[in-house]
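Page 37, continued from 36.
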């Protein structure tokens, strides 16, 4: 009798565990951000055609946006329902981790469809994820007044690409030398989990992969002589499973002195090898036919929107309302237009002393980066011959906007730019870990 009671209790316990497990598997996965936004994982798919799933809701629907989108290659898409307050759109990205959290890669693209006010359905594309693993762990990084924050919790999804046959690349031993023309680059080290020189904020743990970078050490020679006027600016990293990431390379400093270079993101370091394609760009030593100097460029009072309007009104859709360039030329087969400078108040009242910004806009045709050519401002001075303080730049599609802090009212500026070809070298290397 006791055995019957014992086995009955065990059966009830097992059934309870099974029901709890089934409930957990079927219950939606939800992450709540600091601003109250509620993110719900609706589904995952892998392929080339991606159709937005149906969302059941009450109230007035808007129904704006596309019903589907396509990708060139088989792509992992994660469907997330974003519910937030009114028109307060959340600013966040999805990060893909492996189980051991050796690395993570941020999503770069997403497509969205508004369901109703305060509710959007997002199709987040993950072009890089740990494809050999059974599970993928998705974290949410949000952006706000407190900087970057990693939300509590995670989405756990099954890997739809697992089971595919992936090749294994064979790495070359380091140091390894690769060349483009008369530029020889020797890669000495590729460290996959180096700590970031800059802490991304208290909202991200120091030892989290989101705070890790890839460190590279190299030596460059031109015509057999060591040179320092070639520096890496951009990197493309791939692996044998089909992952691809692209990022900017930054210089690391200690006590004001350069001590190497790093980039983010990398890929998962457990792979047998990465292919690392580095773009090198010159900082000096340009030929005369690569340079263009323009003086007495007028500085007009305006707004940030006035500066950005050069982008809007000078594209192919608005040629009838295109704004006139102050000067134009052709360098290395690229036609370059330079527009009058705009001076306006910066967003930060303390910015540049008086809080003023001077914006200089270039337009190029074709986009030089599509053929491995870079546009680099070399000198920018005001009408008193004083160098303007660089405050950043933005560009894309052949449009370039450079911003400079200038607290004084000035009448004109002088600019010298270089339009020059980059060099590219690729290494197949096994990343090392600390």
């Amino acid at each position: 009798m006791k055995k019957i009671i014992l086995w009955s209790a065990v059966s009830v316990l097992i059934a309870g565990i099974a029901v709890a497990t089934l409930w957990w598997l079927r219950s939606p996965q939800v992450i709540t951000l600091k601003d109250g936004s509620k993110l719900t994982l609706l589904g995952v798919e892998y392929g080339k055609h991606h159709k937005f799933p149906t969302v059941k809701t009450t109230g007035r629907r808007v129904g704006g946006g596309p019903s589907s989108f396509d990708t060139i290659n088989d792509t992992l898409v994660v469907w997330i329902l974003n519910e937030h307050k009114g028109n307060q759109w959340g600013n966040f990205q999805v990060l893909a981790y492996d189980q051991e959290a050796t690395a993570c890669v941020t999503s770069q693209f997403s497509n969205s469809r508004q369901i109703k006010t305060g509710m959007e359905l997002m199709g987040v594309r993950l072009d890089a994820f740990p494809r050999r693993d059974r599970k993928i762990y998705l974290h949410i990084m949000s952006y706000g007044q407190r900087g970057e924050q990693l939300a509590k919790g995670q989405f756990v999804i099954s890997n739809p690409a697992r089971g595919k046959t992936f090749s294994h690349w064979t790495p070359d031993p380091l140091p390894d030398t690769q060349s483009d023309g008369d530029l020889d680059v020797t890669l000495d080290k590729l460290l996959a989990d180096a700590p970031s020189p800059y802490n991304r904020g208290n909202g991200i743990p120091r030892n989290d992969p989101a705070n890790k970078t890839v460190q590279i050490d190299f030596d460059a020679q031109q015509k057999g002589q060591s040179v320092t006027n070639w520096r890496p600016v951009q990197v493309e990293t791939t692996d044998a499973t089909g992952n691809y990431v692209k990022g900017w390379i930054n210089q690391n400093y200690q006590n004001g002195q350069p001590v190497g270079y790093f980039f983010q993101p990398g890929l998962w370091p457990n792979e047998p090898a990465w292919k690392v394609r580095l773009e090198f760009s010159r900082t000096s030593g340009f030929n005369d036919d690569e340079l263009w100097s323009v003086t007495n460029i007028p500085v007009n009072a305006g707004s940030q929107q006035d500066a950005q309007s050069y982008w809007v009104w000078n594209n192919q859709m608005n040629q009838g309302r295109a704004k006139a360039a102050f000067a134009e030329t052709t360098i290395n087969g690229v036609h370059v237009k330079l527009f009058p400078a705009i001076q306006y108040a910066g967003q930060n009242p303390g910015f540049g002393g008086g809080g003023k910004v001077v914006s200089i806009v270039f337009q190029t045709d074709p986009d030089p980066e599509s053929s491995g050519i870079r546009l680099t401002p070399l000198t920018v001075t005001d009408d008193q011959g004083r160098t303007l303080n660089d405050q950043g730049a933005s560009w894309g599609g052949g449009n370039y906007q450079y911003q400079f802090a200038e607290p004084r009212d000035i009448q004109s500026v002088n600019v010298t730019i270089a339009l020059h070809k980059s060099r590219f070298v690729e290494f197949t290397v096994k990343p090392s870990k600390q």
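Confidence is low (pLDDT under 50) at residues 9-25, 349-353. Flag for discussion at group meeting. The radius of gyration is 26 Å.
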